[in-house]
Amino acid sequence: MVVLREGMCPGLDEDVVRDLLEDLVASDTEELAQKCSVSYKALLAIRRVLLAQHTAFPVSGLDLYEELVSSTAILSTSIPSLDKLLDSGLYTGEITELSGAPGTGKSQVCFATATHTAHRLKQSVIYIDTTGGLSATRLLQMLQVQTDETGEQTEALQRIRVFRVFDIFSLLDCLHGLRCGGLQQASLGGGSVKAVILDSVSAIISPTLGGKQNEGMSLMMQVAGTLKTIAKDFNVAVLVTNHMTRGPGGEPQAGLGLSWSHVPRTRLLLERSDGAGPLLGSKRTATLVKSSRRPCHIKAEFDFNRGSRPEEGLLGGVRVRDGSDP
Amino acid sequence: MTETGAQLFARLDARRCLTDIEAHLFPEDCGPRHGEVVELHGLEGTGKTELLYHLLCRCVLPVEAGGMGVEVVFVDSDYSLDMLRLVTILENRLAAGLSTGRPEAGSSGVCPEEAALRSCLSRLLVVHCGSSSQLLLTLHYLDTSLSSRPGLSLLLIDSISAFYWLDRCGGGESVARQEDKLTKDYRITVFATSHAIRRNYKNVASSSSSSSSSSSSPYSEYEQPYLCRPWQRLVTHRLLCSRGMAGANMASATCADKHSKKQSFNVRCTSSSSSSRGTKAHKSSSFYVTDGGVVFV
């Protein structure tokens, strides 16, 4: 008896085994029975077992709903006007995208969300930094605004796990690691992982795109698929940042093209408000571009207070203007 | 395997025909019959998934609430199914449908709305797929569940193009073959969404030189199908979704004059089903989205 298993001989890798499996399942069972003189019944049984092992299990909508109701959490971004725009925050099980030109506050929103989740909600956060833009000082600064106790600050910082990856293959490695047990491991140190922040997704994917390469697209969709699986299976909120381009008519658009545009469930476009102060405009406008819950194209304004003025910025250096519809 | 004519009839007749699933969408007498495939195609944010929810709700809602009371399989290869949204739509529809109906169902302990919602949701089967081979095997597996549950009459796939970039070379053909088999054997109706992810560059180049022609057909740029040929042969109805008019300025104009602040979506249907005898029938319709789901105008 020979067991067909990947790695048995050099040519027989996982893909070949999967192809053989697909062919076996797709072939006509009656014909196959005649060809290899195996009884039809036995072949049917094999087919049934193979299918049972490799297919996705159908779930009743009722069970799915009940599970969802008991496990869905909404994470606040700690910026009230953004929360209002997002229908009270980041939903677990979904990918939310922030896109905007450089300096529109994408990373700042990520920092604010990370510190808020780690400190107020006492949950772990995984922060994947692909640009080297994560500044621990800034995180600490935001925490100092929220609490004076050094112990609490240390605890909150410990709940934020940072991964630094600078190319797409290490990103995929990192995501697969998280998927296969890394998330549970990270959650051992108090509080389960509720948020995965990827800042920024475009920095890592855009170098692989362009020209006539399909590999880049394939890699991008793999990243997207893994992020979605992580979001759903572990019930975490995924927050990614993306750059911004201009469409043919000059209107702002999220980067990474059409294929990526289908990936995030919710997308916010961040822009600098016009007519801001002469030095650095700290006012930002967020526009809801894509959402399945709220009408699109509503706007909200928020304000970054870059200087450390804790007496004003109760919310971690982010001062809030009231949201206004257009 | 052989079966008698009576058995064949018993197997096929139990399934409900979904021709009248949505009169607004399809041309006259061209609703999707047994075993036909409808493709929903469009850019992001053009209401494809919302339309699917609408059709899904219409199917799972009980007859007294304006639905059809049939069972549905939702193959979610994109992780795009938002149960909360679906439940919101169902609740709204149920409230609208049942408020005029019977006064009190009187089920023990559970309020009637909740019970109705639960019975609706139990008519839905959700399958999550993570790769194209899993999708293929799952479709094979559906064989058995379809033959054991005669109430199942609609298969929704969101989205069929999810793995396009992952296995471009020749991928998808076997999926199309299996789907073909499913539709023939069990006379199930399939709705599948495909994302517009390839721009037709030839068209863009020509339209930039003559901008007037491009504005007349806002669809043309993304219209070209890119999935494999067997799939294209399989599709009998194509619904092209688009948002508002072409540009942002037009969208704001429609917002201002008609239904204040509501984004409208357009759908154009091209049917080439057997009933229309070779000729293609077209129909355009538009809808807007509210808390209670899709409303046609």
Global geometry of chain B: globular
Main sheet: strand order of chain B? 3-2-4-5-1-6-7-8-9
Total strand segments of chain A: 14
Oligomer: heterodimer
- CATH top level of the largest domain in chain A is Alpha Beta
DSSP helix fraction of chain B: 25-40%
Rounded to the nearest angstrom, the distance between the terminal CA atoms of chain A is 72 Å
CATH architecture of chain B: 3-Layer(aba) Sandwich
Question: What is the C-alpha radius of gyration of chain A, as a whole number of Å?
Answer: 24 Å
Number of helices of chain A: 12
For the sheet with most strands of chain B, the description reads: 9 strands, mixed
Total of helices of chain B? 11
User: What general form of chain A does the structure show?
Assistant: elongated
Number of strands of chain B: 9
User: What's the structural domain tally of chain A?
Assistant: 2
Considering the chains and any ligands shown, give keywords for the structure.
heterodimer; A: 326 residues; alpha/beta; Rossmann fold; 2 domains; nine-stranded mixed sheet; two-stranded antiparallel sheet; elongated; disordered C terminus; B: 297 residues; 21% strand; globular; DNA damage (chain A); RecA_ATP-bd (chain A)
Quick rundown:
The complex is a heterodimer of chains A (326) and B (297). Chain A is of the alpha/beta class and 326 residues long.
Walk me through the structure:
In chain A, strand 12 and strand 13 (about 300-305) form a beta hairpin. Chain A has helices at about 15-25, 30-35, 40-55, 60-70, 80-85, 105-120, 135-145, 150-160, 170-185, 200-205, 215-235, 255-260; strands at about 60, 75, 90, 95-100, 125-130, 160-165, 195-200, 235-240, 245, 250-255, 265-270, 285-290, 300-305, 320. Helix content of chain A is about 40%, strand content about 20%. Chain B has helices at about 5-15, 50-60, 85-100, 110-120, 130-150, 175-185, 200-210, 210-215, 220-225, 230-235, 250-255, and strands at about 35-40, 70-75, 125-130, 150-160, 190-195, 235-245, 265-270, 280-290, 295. In chain B, helix 3 crosses helix 4 and helix 5 (about 130-150) runs parallel beside helix 6 (about 175-185). Chain B starts with a helix and ends with a strand. At the A-B interface, helix 1, helix 3, strand 1, helix 4 and helix 11 of A face helix 2, helix 3, strand 3, helix 5 and helix 6 of B.
